[in-house]
């Protein structure tokens, strides 16, 4: 099995200065591979949400166990992965979002990696989401460069826009403000279009999120002493970019992402590359085996074109070709039994049989679970019948960690995962 160290102190640099001296409990020094020195360790700060989720659970031995851990102590754990940071409440892929996830105890932080017009790497969940995750449409000179500038709703047609990182340079990208992801399809003005945050999230922290280049992300996460999980985003534009005669191919893009860690002196042991494209993993395994062996293959078994049986069969192929870790969506690893109890799926059991490590995505991404129970949701699709209220999320988490045996959980708000992992000693 490919092993990770799952419970580590929270090493912070600039964050520590904001804490009372009593919270700064340990000083550590690391060598060059760690890339940081004289950091301080602090207890993770979880806030009220895990307690709310646990209080909302049905009475059970699991609830009693979790309640017994209410006073901690809580520490950073690599079981908790900040999915785009902490986008339940902070603009995704921003420094503020990463800071919030780190403060709550995420041991691993994510940057989704795409490229700009001048082929510089930046953190965005999609190459073409700037119109919903930033204020680009409110900056006329940049909005004019979008693949599609804002078009208001009218005559039965929804408002639309399409702005890509590849439409602008790195310097132009850095002038943007990150905002909560969302848009208003009924908008007739740019201001209305940008005001589309789902009601179960918040704009409380959406003032001007600091967008990051990939190099800035590396520097910031390194300063915290945490691990990195960069996802190589499948380009929306045709590759090679910007035209067929260019030498900027998919493999060059994949290598560029790894090179930026090597240039920063980051040990491969701290980097968990990701991709939905299996050929990216095969490239890393061949060209950069130290990084490739750490890589996560992102899978969506519940929507595999060949069905779940094909997704399960593919696991053998991946394992035989050197893939160590599978990262499926949550519904890929959970199902229900005859008694409507949440249990591991056949996909999860086969991955374990093959010796593959499992990481899942994404916890706390679905809003109110009473609405999920009524209307369905992608992240609960395979066990929706067993979900009635918010506290049921902790039941699903328990099955994923203790029965499936996942090694990490991407979460939009990591506090619940951190609480659980510390309570059970992961």
TrEMBL record:
Residues 78-404 form the GP-PDE domain. One of its GO terms (molecular function) is glycerophosphodiester phosphodiesterase activity. This is glycerophosphodiester phosphodiesterase. It comes from Hymenoscyphus albidus. Belongs to the glycerophosphoryl diester phosphodiesterase family. It is an enzyme of class 3 (hydrolase). Residues 1-17 form the signal peptide. Its EC number is 3.1.4.46. It catalyses: a sn-glycero-3-phosphodiester + H2O = an alcohol + sn-glycerol 3-phosphate + H(+). GO terms for biological process: glycerol metabolic process; lipid metabolic process. It comes from the Eukaryota. Pfam families: GDPD (PF03009). Keywords: Glycerol metabolism, Hydrolase, Signal.
């Amino acid at each position: 099995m490919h092993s990770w160290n799952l419970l580590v102190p929270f090493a912070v640099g600039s964050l520590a200065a904001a804490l009372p001296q009593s919270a700064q409990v340990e000083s550590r020094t690391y060598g060059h591979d760690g890339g940081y020195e004289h950091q301080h360790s602090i207890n993770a700060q979880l806030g009220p949400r895990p307690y709310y989720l646990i209080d909302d659970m049905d009475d059970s031995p699991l609830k009693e166990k979790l309640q017994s851990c209410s006073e901690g102590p809580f520490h950073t754990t690599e079981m908790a992965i900040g999915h785009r940071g902490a986008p339940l409440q902070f603009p995704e892929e921003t420094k503020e979002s990463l800071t919030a996830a780190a403060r709550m105890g995420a041991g691993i932080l994510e940057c989704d990696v795409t490229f700009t017009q001048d082929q510089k790497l930046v953190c965005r969940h999609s190459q073409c989401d700037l119109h919903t995750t930033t204020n680009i449409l409110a900056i006329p000179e940049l909005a004019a460069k979008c693949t599609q500038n804002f078009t208001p709703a009218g005559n039965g047609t929804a408002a639309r826009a399409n702005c890509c990182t590849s439409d602008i340079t790195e310097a132009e990208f850095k002038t943007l403000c990150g905002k909560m992801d969302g848009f208003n399809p009924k908008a007739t003005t740019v201001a209305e279009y940008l005001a589309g945050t789902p009601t179960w999230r918040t704009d409380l922290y959406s003032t001007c999120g600091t967008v990051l280049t990939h190099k800035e992300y590396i520097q910031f996460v390194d300063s915290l002493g945490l691990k990195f999980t960069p996802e190589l985003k499948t380009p929306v534009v045709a590759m090679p970019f910007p035209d067929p005669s260019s030498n900027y191919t998919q493999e060059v893009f994949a290598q560029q992402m790894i090179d930026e860690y090597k240039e920063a002196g980051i040990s491969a042991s701290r980097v968990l590359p990701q991709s939905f494209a299996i050929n990216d993993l095969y490239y890393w395994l061949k060209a950069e085996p130290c990084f490739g062996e750490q890589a996560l293959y992102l899978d969506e078994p519940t929507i595999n074109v060949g069905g779940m049986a094909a997704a399960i069969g593919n696991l053998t192929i991946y394992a035989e070709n050197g893939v160590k870790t599978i990262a499926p969506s949550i519904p890929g690893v959970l199902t229900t039994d005859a008694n409507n109890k949440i249990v591991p799926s056949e996909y999860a059991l086969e991955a374990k049989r093959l010796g593959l490590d499992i990481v899942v995505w994404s916890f706390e991404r679905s809003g109110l679970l009473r609405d999920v129970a009524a209307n369905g949701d992608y992240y609960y699709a395979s066990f929706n019948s067993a979900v009635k209220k918010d506290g049921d999320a902790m039941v699903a988490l328990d099955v994923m960690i203790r029965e499936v045996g996942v090694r990490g959980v991407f979460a939009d708000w990591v506090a619940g995962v951190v609480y659980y992992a510390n309570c059970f000693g992961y």
